[in-house]
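Response to reviewer comment R2.3. The reviewers asked that we include at least one raw input/output pair. We reproduce the pair for Holocarboxylase synthetase here without editing.
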Amino acid sequence: ESVKFASAENIPELPDDYSGNLEGVNSDCPTEYLKRINLTGKPPNILVYVGSDPKKVKFEEIKSIITECVDFNSYTVYQLLEKQVLSVPWLDNALLLIIATSEPISDTLSKQFLTFMSKGGKILGLSATFTFGGIRVKRKNELIDTI
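Raw output as returned:
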């Protein structure tokens, strides 16, 4: 809800590596006209991968939440189907990939996701088993009595 209230106050979004200042900017300029700067040059697409689940229910739930968090006039949210990961040229056409599946992700798909990251894309994992390289996710009870 804090994100919802922040957007209600028209707080401008800044890129992660914003290092500039507002010198020389007319202070009469309303913040509603400030738009997020796309530094990667990628189209403002957000893709949601929900695994092999053929139903659109999970995708629609995630899309609903995402559109509350981002400017829906600036970003478009699409579902990335499992069969499209290797066949559709999405790697250069998205800013963010949301992985929302508890299913194991095959090595082939993992390589595509890592390629996406190497091209400047961002990944957000929601309850996903997808990991990067040698990083492994363990349950909390597996870590008890370990250093």
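Residues 1-8, 17-27, 29-36 have pLDDT under 50 and may be disordered. The helical segments are 2-8, 57-69, 107-118. Further pairs are available on request from the corresponding author.
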